[in-house]
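User: Could you go from structure to sequence for me? I need the amino acid at each position, not a summary. Structure tokens:
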């Protein structure tokens, strides 16, 4: 009897300690990335949470949800992004607004970081819901270095920001303009979540 109690006790410890570290998937209630709602950032850039998930009937895709306080497609040139690393390689998925025209929406994902040909990004499927503030992205795993079942995505974080003019379209931020606009409005045009460190790791399921 005592042996059986010890076995049950050990099993309960394993369940309560190991499983949270290797969660099957996040969702809106249990996101990998959690951020505080802030009052010094524009609502349409204020990150609430982000999560990774998969679907058994679509094993070749990774899905990402990103929740903001508000979705507003009117402001020019927004990048609403989720980042992670796979085997030390930086990867990201994003919804971009206003780069091809006012209110134009595009979704992309890929790997690499840097200027010119150091980045490898392709268009993906995505959608957003203005009522919930949630953006959903469907990413072919082949676009993000093809992670396999049991492998881990690490160092996750979400980043939102706004760019201005032609120089912003080239990939540069106008720091002085950002500073001036912050002084005028008292609101920042970028957010990162979590505010410190990274989100939880995600284990590929399929």
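Assistant: Here is the amino acid at each position, in order:
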């Amino acid at each position: 009897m005592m042996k059986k109690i010890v076995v049950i006790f050990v099993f309960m410890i394993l369940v309560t300690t190991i499983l949270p570290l290797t969660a099957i998937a996040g969702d809106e209630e249990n996101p990998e990335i959690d951020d505080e709602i802030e009052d010094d950032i524009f609502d349409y850039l204020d990150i609430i949470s982000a999560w990774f998930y998969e679907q058994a009937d679509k094993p070749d895709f990774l899905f990402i949800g990103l929740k903001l306080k508000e979705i507003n497609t009117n402001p020019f040139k927004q990048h609403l992004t989720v980042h992670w690393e796979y085997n030390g390689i930086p990867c990201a998925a994003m919804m971009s607004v206003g780069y091809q025209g006012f209110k134009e929406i595009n979704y992309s994902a890929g790997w690499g970081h840097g200027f010119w040909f150091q980045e490898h990004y392709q268009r993906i499927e995505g959608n957003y819901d203005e009522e919930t503030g949630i953006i959903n992205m469907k990413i072919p795993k082949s676009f993000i270095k093809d992670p396999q079942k049991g492998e881990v995505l690490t160092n996750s974080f979400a980043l939102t920001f706004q760019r201005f003019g032609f120089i912003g379209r080239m990939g540069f931020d106008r720091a002085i303009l950002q500073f001036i606009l912050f002084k005028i409005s008292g609101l920042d045009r970028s957010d990162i979540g979590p505010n410190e460190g990274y989100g939880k790791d995600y284990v590929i399921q399929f």
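One structural detail worth keeping in mind: The two ends are 39 Å apart (CA to CA).
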